[in-house]
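Troubleshooting: if your tokenizer reports a length mismatch, compare your output against this known-good record of 254 residues.
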Amino acid sequence: MKTGLYNDFARKIIEKDSKYRKIVKYIHINLSKLIPENVISEIESIAEVGGACGHVLNYYKIFFEKRGNNIKKVVNFEISREFIDYGKRLYKFIEFYEGDFMNNWNKKGKFDLIILSDIIEHIEEDDVFLEKVSKISKYVFVYIPCEDNLLNTILEFIKKREKIGMNHPSGHLRKYNIAKCEKLLSKHFYILNSKIFIHPIYLTKTPWGIKIKRSMLGIILVIFMKILNKLLPKKIYVRLFGGNYMAFLKSKNW
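Known-good structure output:
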């Protein structure tokens, strides 16, 4: 996503900050369950790439400190001035580093944990990016949308959805499925724990209380997808309709 468009996106997110915080909390309550118990005590420094205004970093600082950790360093690599200015007002303990991570990846030293939430799909050279991350962080969280699915293929074919790529409004440069995620991540990391997460955006009302307006056809489709979600194995469901891949990783290059 180009910087101008990303700043526009940032302004929209900031305007709806209370809802955005609920989404962040819901996702990361699920993601944090993947941390092995024996790893928790090791975490004293945390970073995030593309961490917006810092809500995710704030969640994990609280998460680890509640378990007795002394979090000494928290860094957000972020390119949006809108997010940075807003985040600095909210979280004095976060160091906001403005700049492209690919060119500044080793400027802030090493970390015990780096969070990559909805970021890998925005990176042109995803393998090079992950290799750099693996050299500066012992552990990594990833959260990746699985957009390589049958529903997306149909919607793109009938031109109801733009094809994922350089000009896509979301800034997503490529589509992943579970197999692609694991193949990519396994080059530089050991996958300690993983989970398939079916995003509640498919519901008519999400767990964080945001109502979603849909046509009658859309409501019928959502009900159908909810039924299939109960009946099908998650890997098959994600291949058909999409979802998200979550994983807790350990670097092979540390």
